[in-house]
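fyi for ur records
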Amino acid sequence: MGEVPSRLRAGVEEAFLLLELGGQNPPAADGGGLHRDPSTEKGSGDDFELNYDRQEDRETVNSIMNAAFKNHKAKLYKHFKKFGSKDEALQHRPVDTSVENWIACCELFSQPSYQERSRINTNNRAKLKVHHTGGSRPFVWHRKKLQDPEVGTPTAADLYSKTHNKKKW
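which gave:
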């Protein structure tokens, strides 16, 4: 296995990856990838091993970490917008953010180009008549999940309904 930075060995990222995979281990014919350890308790977050030598594993971790970063940045921007100015926001740093990171975020969030892009995105989002509820999973994944062995592949209407209506839990 390749050398992995210590911050990635912490287990939080691997637990997040396990949650993203739905607690399932994808098949790995070449012996690489995620390996479940049947001796550990299911759902502990430490019951699989990532092989960072495999491109697929690195891409999966990068994709999940990019999504986590994007969500965290959105949370920080929402906090930033509560205040009238950059100086006021700087004095109200979120507790889970370092001073250096909060200063960098406030610099970014106060740039006119960032403010304009945010305004455009907010307006575009408000114009949507139908909101997508399928998450980040591809339509192919939803189609396969809806597939019934007796009926076959779901219709386009079924797929649209699944990915554009509120979830019923």
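DSSP finds seven helices and no strands in the chain. thats all i got for now
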